[in-house]
Amino acid sequence: MIATQAKLVYQLNKYYTERCQARKAAIAKTIREVCKVVSDVLKEVEVQEPRFISSLSEIDARYEGMEVVSPTEFEVVLYLNQMGVFNFVDDGSLPGCAVLKLSDGRKRSMSLWVEFITASGYLSARKIRSRFQTLVAQAVDKCSYRDVVKMVADTSEVRLRIRERYVVQITPAFKCTGIWPRSAAQWPMPHIPWPGPNRVAEVKAEGFNLLSKECYSLTGKQSSAESDAWVLQFAEAENRLLLSGCRKKCLSILKTLRDRHLELPGQPLNNYHMKTLLLYECEKHPRESDWDESCLGDRLNGILLQLISCLQCRRCPHYFLPNLDLFQGKPHSALEAAAKQTWRLAREILTNAKSLDKL
Question: pLDDT tens digit string along 1-22?
Fold first, then answer.
């Protein structure tokens, strides 16, 4: 049994070196290319409207605020200034979302975003996004890359298609530090020892983002209050939880397997599902020794089996917001096809570690 485990870990490390590192290098190259174009567009936006300042910056060869959705799809989070005059209201009525309400006694005119405040005093995510979309459309026509970039039509999101190959979504957002959403108050579970009080304090201090984008749980039934709502996002908190042991290596292997074998019609699975299941696996195996290099095979198998179970139940709860189902709105047939394909993949890896050479 130990020899079989060791063989699997050897093959996974080989897979990581050959496939995952190649994927990372290719994505890093794409990101550099894409960020040149996006920075140029955002520079134009800033000239027209100084409230939208580009926060896309390169730090240690990584772009801050850039999320990789897939090797051809990216999201840039554009941080807005001065949220201060608004209260963060998160009563759980909109899973995965919250609203920003003008603080009592504050005048509208005190806000930098005065014309986007609704009659009832909410800062409207939709109105800000709509204004931003108009500005980006104008900037695309003026920027020096106008021959290779165009707006994606028929969406309220701000999406650019670059060189007909890549899609980048630019999402206006507010960074919220020093507070923690009520809808995530159940985290961490009292009976689960991971990640430990010090890391929990770090994660909560890191805070979360409020994004102006269409919400998972609201598609198809948007009332005006809902379209004014902001989507909660915990990217920095999640990344901080995955820092030690072989967690990041495990995620890298999962993403590579997904990109190569689980990119299916109806797009049932994205890399965020992989990250979510990895966080749940950390809770199931709370000891640091469970994340030693020698356990890589066991952890990967555990996550793939959990993924199959979620696909069959058609439910994947968000790690911090368990009332939010990340499979909401996905076609059942696509989830079924993904369950079958994941099972084939898991069986292949479990029964024959050398099959990773071909995967």
Answer: 667 789 999 999 999 999 999 9
Residue type present at position 129: R
Rounded Cα distance between 172 and 212, Å, is 6
Query: Any alpha helices (H) in 182-230, and if so which ranges?
Result: 197-206, 224-227
Percent of the residues in the chain that have a pLDDT greater than 70, as a whole number: 96
Looking at residue 354, the DSSP 8-state letter turns out to be G
Pairing of β 73-79 and β 166-176: parallel
SS3 338: helix
**Residue 179 and residue 197 in contact, taking contact as beta carbons nearer than 8 Å:** no
CA angle 43, 213, 172 (to 5 degrees): 25
| Helix (H/G/I), strand (E/B), else coil: 322 | coil
Beta-carbon count within 10 A of 297 CB: 21
Give this prediction's pTM.
Answer: 0.93
CA 253 to chain centroid: 17
pLDDT tier at 83, thresholds 50, 70, 90: low
Overall residue count recorded for the chain in this entry? 359
**Sequence-ordered list of residues with C-beta below 8 angstroms from that of 328, at least 6 positions apart, any chain:** 216, 217, 219
Q: Residue 300's pLDDT band (boundaries 50, 70, 90)?
A: very high
Choose among 110, 140, 108, 142: nearest CA to 124: 108
